Structures are given as C-alpha cells and as structure tokens.
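Table S4 entry, Phospholipid/cholesterol/gamma-HCH transport system ATP-binding protein.
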Amino acid sequence: MGVEVVVEGLSKSFGSQAIWRDVSLTLPAGEISVLLGPSGTGKSVFLKSLVGLLTPERGKILINGVDLCRCSESKLYEIRKLFGVLFQDGALFGSMNLFDNVAFPLREHTRKTEAEIRRIVLEKMEMVELVGAERKLPGEISGGMRKRAGLARALVLDPEIILCDEPDSGLDPVRTANLSQLLIDLNAQIDATILIVTHNITVARTVPDNLGMLFRRELVMFGPREMLLTSDNPVVVQFINGRRVGPIGMSEEKDQAAVAAELAGHQSGPPDEDVRGIVPQLEPTPGLPRRQGALRRKDRVMRDLHALPAAARQGVLDSLTDEDRARYGMLAGVGAPVAPAAQPVSAVVPEWQPRHGHLPAPPGAAGPDPSDQRPVRRRGRWRFGRGGGNQRGGRSA
C-alpha cells in the first residue's frame, strides 16, 4: 500500500517572489488526489518540493516520520526511492528506445541482472499497454504513448507514491480519458498514493478521491472531492466553469475593483452555465480488483459526514449504492450513517476530523445544525463550525 504524505505549513519563494505560503494538507495513503490551479500558481514547484528537488524555506514534509526538509542527504536518497514521477513532457531520452528508457532507473539504482530487468520492464510496459513498442524511439511515437512510457518508467522501482505533473498536457480528449482510466487501474492494482497536478476539469471531476486548488500563493481548499466540486468559493466557481469573469485574470489575479466592474457588466448578459456538481467517479476496468483506497476514503468520509458542508454532504449521500447503504446501516437513504460492520471505527485512522476528533452524534442526539456549518482552518487542520474563517490549507479528508 502507498504511504501517507503530510505537509505542514510549507512555504516556498524564489528570491523576493513568494510562490506559495503556509500550505498544509495530507495525501492519504493509497488514494488519488488532484491539485488544481491557474497557470503560474506553483503546482509543479509543489511537486518538486515533495520529492526533495527543491527545498522550501519553512514547513515540513513528513513521510514515514521523516521530514524531507531537514533530513540528511542519505535519508533523502532513501525516501526518494518511494517516489515515481511522471513529468509533464514524459522526459524520455531521445536517443534511447522505449525499453531502455523504462529500464534506465533499474540499471542506475539497482544491481539486477539483465534478465530480471527485462522481466520487470516488460511487465510495466504491459501495465501501460505498450507491449510491442519496446524498440521504438520517442520521436517515432505519439504524445500519448510517450506519456505512457514515462509512466512505465516511473513504475519500475515499485513506488509507493506517484506524482503526475499535468499528465494530460498536449493530449486530445480521447487520450486524456484513456490516461485517466489507466491511472485508476494502476491504483487498483498497486494501491499507491497518487497526486496529479492538472488544469483539466474533466480529470478533476472524475478521477480523484481528494481535490484541492492553489490560488494567490495559498491553498484555497483541499479535502474530499465533493467539497470543491460543490463549493461556492468565487475562485473555484470561476475555474471549474472556465469563466472569464471572476478573481482569476491573465496575470493570475485581479484587484477587487476590476472584479466588481466585470460582474456589474456581466449581469446584463445571459446567465452562464454552471457545471459544478458531483459526477460519478471512474471505476477500475472490469476484471481488476476494487480500489482499496476508494473504500478507505469512503469509510472516512461517511464517519465524518456530519462535518462536511451541506452541499458536499448531500453529494456524498446521493452517490451511495444500495450496497453502501447496507454497509453503513442506512435504510432507503434515511438515517444516520454508522461505522461499517466489517471495519470498526477504532480501526479507521482519520486524515481529518472535526474539532476534538468527535465522531458523528447518534440519531436523535442534540447538537448544532450541521447544515449551518462552514470549514474553519485551525492549526493546519480542518474543523467545521459556526463562524468565519479562511478556507485554505486544511488537512485532507
């Protein structure tokens, strides 16, 4: 199974230019997360920081109890072996055929025999549907094939964490859909922790378990996919709908006067279509096992369902199958969810939780109206309660 990645208060600058600051989130073990954001918000810088290629000025990146920002070079080298990275352009060596490109990490970092290397390379190339293309050069294949070759190379050392930097860039919608399904299938087979950076809204709506967004050098929000896909945050609404009018401009952000003027002029025109909302998440290809990360994530979200905003909570309930309702002790969609019988609550370690770690109140118990609650960030974690607060930088759900 993949490992958990905990980011606490991370800040990165280049000289006097702040890229992002005080970013806190958790990538749950074995789950797929997506990070959105306008161009220039430092998403690729964030990935490079996670793998130790860049060193943030402040904060922590904790993997298996090791802080990558402060550990020794030898320890960092060992932790990096947990990662596989799919770079934006595939980053293949143009003079090597696909087999040698995929084999490169094994020859560089292990002492395996050529027979072992051949077995592993062919196995990974089969996983990404590249069997038969081993002798082709990168310049002889399509962009989609180059992406898949880069993914095969990222897999040869059996990583527990896979980082994908805009895997859909330069691909047509059909190839993007195929690559999205491939990532879901890989997660079902190897249960690795996956983080995808993308601009593609279709990918963001259909692939991840958890979803976040960077803007104005801060993390707007990060948590269960339902939170962002139903959010009323103006930045999220504009980005998901691809609208010209809103806080995001050509230079990433606009001042408040410009936004107000745009909105005033925009109100006289026809209403924009709003594509927010929760669509079904991609399932593994028939014949593959169920995604264990998706099951763990559902247990966690259902346990803390009362703490989600009302729209996100309803989206979760609407997505439940009859099997889910039986698992969580719900009859015909009515009643409070309880811990699944097959896995007691004590066996489920939360990635985020309400204040004091309270579990959902039993049916009929007195308490505040959960529909009147908003997320508030406290000490790098999300809690949900009455009152204001800036929705940024929470721990993941």
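The longest strand covers residues 17-27.
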